[in-house]
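Q: What structure does this chain adopt?
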Amino acid sequence: MNVGRNVRRFLCRCICVCLVLVCFALLACNPVSPPPRDPSDGSDDIGTAPPPPKLTKYVQQTELPKLSITTRQPIASKYEYVTANYRMRSDSGAYDFDADGSVRLRGNYTMTLTKKPYRVKFTDKQTPIGMDSSRSWYLLNEATDFSLLRNYLAYTYADDLLDYSLRARYVEVEVNEDYKGIYLMTDKRGEGKDRIPVVLTQGVDTGWIVEVDNRAIGGDVNNDNPLASHQPYAYCQREGIDFTKNAFYCVVPTVGVQAFVISEPSAPTPEQFAAIRAYVTALTEGLDNETYDDYLDIDSLARFYMVEELWHDTDVGSVYLYRENGACKAKMGPVWDLDLSCGISAIVSDVPGATNSYDEWYYNQINLFVKPVWYGEKFRAALQRNWNATYAHETADLLAGIDEVIEFLRPYQAANFERWKVSDEAKAEGKVLWSDESGISQETSPSFMSKSYKALDTWENHVAAVKEFLTKRAEWLNTRINSFAI
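A:
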């Protein structure tokens, strides 16, 4: 009995081993093929999805989410909000949220383009794309910068140089099921947690934020005055700029009359208004006699200048400075609106000898704070000290960061430029980027664009041009700042 049982067990084991061997043989002869690869899914040649990008200083998100904005009314004004529902979705779900709120247009020139910029206001605070929570955000359309890099790189570079720089993330935007392309989601400039560090109080020691606004010059006189400029007056009326309550003039040495507009406090008391005006007046007067550093943090000025000059920023419509509280000196920043930089603009200002090349001084001749002190020993010593303290590692980080951002954007940029083509065919398809507020097409590209910029015909050429410009300009500035050969 025991012998028979053992024989049966042996035979069963043999049969099992044979079956296993047969299966291995069949698999070897007929391997299982992987499913066919969808070329649009972003996977590599062996059918596996590429890993998400490594988070670095310059790549601060793992994917590009889509923000869908739904409204019942058209978004047609920069002064009136419309109710909106927000829905953000990402492939991994890491950046997903739903929120109610409101939305309006924002900007000045960029608002006239077909790809509109927006001001977002959530009903409750949100933490979009890993940024700190807030209700108010900007959606910058990046419509004049076909590399999609300039603002983002500048804000990220400035983050280590200045006490405050705008946080920014890339996002695709859809408005009422109309795909609008890639935008830059940034902080709204203003005080608040993790924003411009000013302390608002009810007294004259309050912190403040002031904007130097060239558009407001001449806006304090009535339209009935034949010597007045109607355009600045109308602009000030629309923007709530009142030269008896929240705006004032200063005569800046070597520059001339400038308009200063108080952004925070939003409604200064008469005492606060007088104190802020007196402080800024003393600061600007000091630019002519080397006492300005009693009022303005000179290292802040030097570092602000470093960013603007490195980018060769040609847009001087708005410059910001702030004072944290009554015991502090004013500081420059944040840097803002650097999309017209790195060779985009044809030089239309009256800066002597300017060619928009990487190998020339520019911002030192147009910034109202830098121009009067450019030849002064105090400023040059501060500039050289701050440049040399940051040049080596910050420049290396920037140049490596450009490549990182390019690779992050590469899978997504085609959809943006499919939506926004600047060509005759695009006009026929209703995809014209350059148009006025009424939708009437202008020329293929604005007159302020340089010929070299207009000649770039692909996204790859645009991003390569930005990297080349910043690389050469950093080297040129390093030599000049350390020798001050002007």
